[in-house]
């Protein structure tokens, strides 16, 4: 059990570093484009959509990291099945159609906790950018009326 906790925590740390780098990259992407963004709502949404895609890619990469761990431990016969199981864990769906062996079962809940936290981080970054885009759009609309 202790080895599973160590494996899980190490994987969480690697993924946290990855998520942190991607969030910084995504927010820099947004900041660079925000200053050149016309006040039009659709232009702002195009930038926010780009940010969202970067964050989704980050979550998919993290799912893949966990899947590689499961696959390397011999939990699944194919990488595809490993990725599916990892995605279910990461998204905290908990289908239960595929269950890991008793030896490594603790890794599933660890990934679920990690996934909930990382999706929350992505949501926070996206919410901030969306709020700023709406503020810029709202400010432009107000100044247009005056």
Automatic annotation (TrEMBL):
| Potassium channel domain residues | 63-130
User: Keywords, A to Z?
Assistant: Ion channel, Ion transport, Membrane, Transmembrane, Transmembrane helix, Transport
Which GO terms are recorded in the biological process aspect for this UniProt protein? Answer: monoatomic ion transmembrane transport
Establish whether keyword Transmembrane is in the entry: yes
Q: Which domain of life is it from?
A: Bacteria
Look up the signal peptide feature and give its range: none
From the record, give the transmembrane residue ranges: 6-27, 47-71
InterPro entries of this UniProt entry? K_chnl_dom (IPR013099)
Q: What is this protein called?
A: Two pore domain potassium channel family protein
- Please report the organism this UniProt entry assigns to the protein: Parahaliea maris
């Amino acid at each position: 059990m202790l080895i599973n906790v160590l494996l899980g925590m190490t994987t969480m740390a690697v993924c946290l570093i990855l998520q942190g780098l991607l969030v910084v990259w995504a927010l820099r992407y947004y900041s660079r484009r925000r200053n050149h963004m016309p006040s039009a709502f659709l232009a702002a949404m195009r930038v926010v959509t780009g940010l969202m895609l970067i964050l989704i890619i980050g979550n998919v990469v993290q799912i893949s990291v966990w899947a590689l761990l499961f696959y390397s431990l011999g939990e699944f016969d194919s990488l595809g099945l490993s990725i599916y199981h990892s995605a279910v864990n990461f998204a905290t769906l908990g289908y239960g159609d595929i269950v890991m062996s008793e030896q490594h079962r603790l890794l599933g809940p660890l990934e679920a906790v990690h996934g909930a936290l990382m999706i929350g981080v992505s949501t926070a970054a996206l919410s901030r950018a969306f709020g700023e885009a709406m503020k810029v759009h709202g400010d432009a609309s107000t100044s247009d009326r005056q």
